[in-house]
Structure prediction request, 310 residues.
Amino acid sequence: MYDLAIIGSGPAGLTAAIYASRGELNTIVLEGTEPGGQLTITSEVENFPGFPEGIQGPELMERMKKQAAKFGTEIVTVEVKSIDLSGSPFRLTAGSDEIEATAVIVATGSKARWLGLESESKLRGKGVSACATCDGFFFTDKEIAVVGGGDSAIEEATFLTRFASKVTVIHRRDKLRASKSMQKKAFDNEKVEFAWESVVEDILGVEEDRVTGLLLKNVNTGETRELPLDGVFIAIGHTPATDIFQGKLELDEKGYIVADEKGQTSVEGVFAAGDVKDTIYRQAITAAGSGCIAALEAYKWITDEEIPTW
Prediction:
């Protein structure tokens, strides 16, 4: 029996654990099958406060984990198979164990959708990215591509023109799905070009251990061509990790958990933090901030005391 169970071990989950454990809540973190979340597949992180020289994503998460453990958080590498949210104490099935907790923080995150190419997985962090705000700076004065045609893709393409010398948007159709205002920004930007009715057949550069180009295929003619460049951003959407919460928590049309600014979900005593509820920012620092808020609100809910200023 725990005061607080935190599902997920990315910046949101571990920040929540640090705050909860410092508040002397008996806290357990259920890491899941990908401990550390998305940052463990990120190379250098330059925009997390306190690291002027930058820090490797896995190292940042390992430091957060050690900090949470220092204050007494129990951290278990196990996946939550099911959860009963019918009333507190809430019951979680994790591996072969049954866990009870007075309150729960869901910080399971979301995953970028990838193309599914072998070369893509081999070159992640070596020119392949799914986060323009995280990695755009590394492509200053270089030619890059963005794959996708929705608002996220066009927003990322426009943002990346701050750094890159040219951004080619690769879209399988002959027109964009993005909003008209977003389209206009891209069409008016002289750095943005378009590869219409095209899909990525392969990402080139595996032998060089860095992206050197793309092999594109025209969906109408079947013809292929090579596009030399230095990086590619995949912007075909994200999938929140909310399968086990279907029918138990209110989700939006895309599957993200619906929660208020305090992280409170549709079930009292169950809070959400990080990318599992964030459809806009998806940054390590915003996830950490929401983890802090969720932990403080969970403390208030469990103890019926005012939020402390630890």
In short: The first helix runs from residue 11 to 22. The chain has a mean pLDDT of 93.
